[in-house]
Amino acid sequence: MSNENATDSTIVVRNDVGTHRFLIEVDGQVVGYTAYEQFAKMRDFSHTEIAEEFAGRGLAGILVREALSQTKRDGMAVEASCPVVQHFLKTHPDF
């Protein structure tokens, strides 16, 4: 996924399968992640973190939305141990 935000930064979210993390990059720099445990047909998201200097830009929402979207595309169920993901799911019932 790639987006342009108000500051014209390039935002990319990608699944780093080896570390079980979806990473979010801003202009090529990794600035956050959401970690998950993967089971046969389910991903349990356990922790989400955005670097402090990038806080307040809506990056956690972009990251979680894309991680959940890709999980759905992969045909997997979602479990949310992470409070950030729990909040996202409560405020976005379409997921």
Supply the key terms.
single chain, alpha+beta, 6-stranded mixed sheet, 6 strands
Explained architecture:
About 25% of the residues lie in helices and about 40% in strands. Strand 4 and strand 5 (about 40-50) form a beta hairpin. The protein has a 6-stranded mixed sheet with strand order 1-2-3-4-5-6, covered by helices on one side. By secondary structure, the protein is of the alpha+beta class. It starts with a strand and ends with a helix.
Short recap of the structure:
It is built from two helices and six strands. It has helices spanning 59-73, 83-91, and strands spanning 2-4, 10-16, 21-26, 29-39, 42-50, 77-80.
Mean pLDDT metric? 92
SSE order, one letter for each helix or strand: EEEEEHEH
Low-pLDDT stretches are 1-6
What is the alpha-carbon Rg in Å? 13 Å
The spatial strand order of the largest sheet comes to 1-2-3-4-5-6
Cα distance spanning the termini: 18 Å
Question: Which structural class best describes the helix and strand composition?
Answer: alpha+beta
- Helical content, roughly? 25-40%
Helical stretch count? 2
Strand content range: 35-45%
Biggest sheet overview: 6 strands, mixed
